[in-house]
Amino acid sequence: YDVRSVYTDEMGKDLARKYDANVQRMIIQAARSAAAVNGRAGGSTITNADFTGANASSALVAGLFDAAQKMDEKELDEEGRMANFRPAQYYALAQNKDIMNRDWGGRGSYATAEVPVVADIAIFKSNRVPNADDSTNSALKTKYQDDYSNVAGMVYTNMAVGTVKLMDLAMEHEYQVGKQGHLFVAKYAVGHGVLRPDTAIEFTTA
């Protein structure tokens, strides 16, 4: 029974999850950064203790409209605005019937817990939204270390973070006679950095 494809598939997925987590850490770093050039705004923070509380649904909707206002005031393009939330916050939004109400132009589905857009911001669910204190996490490179324990979500565009890729995802394997099995290695060489802080907004509880 050949299980090699299963192992290599899981290794690729694990690297993809780490890639995604580091990008989202850098989006938060962008939201916390000052302007990159003169004449541009820096990142923004929207704080509300209810983002993760009992009133998360209404608080998050209000936060998304606040984020849209901030982006308009920074004269950012209306297209390509996105928000990432962990499942708890995403499903809190999904229970808000006001944003599903088609009489008000809602496009979501209460039945399938689908929240496609709020305040013209596309909503995505992700387990990789950082929510731990990684300021001394030695498993991370220094640039990714920070305290993310109060992060509830983020709003951004694809201009917030830049990625440099030296080597794309690659797999290697060799058969080891002594162990009667295959050794698999999944690897890539990639890094991320803040590009435009003005396009990133952090949702925080404190």
Notes on the protein architecture:
By secondary structure, this protein is of the alpha/beta class. Helices cover 26% and strands 27% of the residues. It has three helices and eight strands; from the N terminus they run αβαβαββββββ. The chain is globular and about 60 Å long.
Overview in brief:
This protein is α/β, with parallel strands linked by helices and 206 residues long. It is built from three helices and eight strands, in the order H-E-H-E-H-E-E-E-E-E-E.
Structural class from helices and strands?
A: alpha/beta
**In whole angstroms, how far apart are the ends?**
52 Å
Categorize the overall geometry: globular
Order of helices and strands: HEHEHEEEEEE
Number of strands: 8
Strand content: 25-35%
Mean pLDDT: 93
The Cα radius of gyration reads: 20 Å
What can be said about the biggest beta sheet? 6 strands, mixed
Low-confidence stretches: none
Identify the notable features of this structure and list them briefly.
single chain; alpha/beta; two-stranded antiparallel sheet
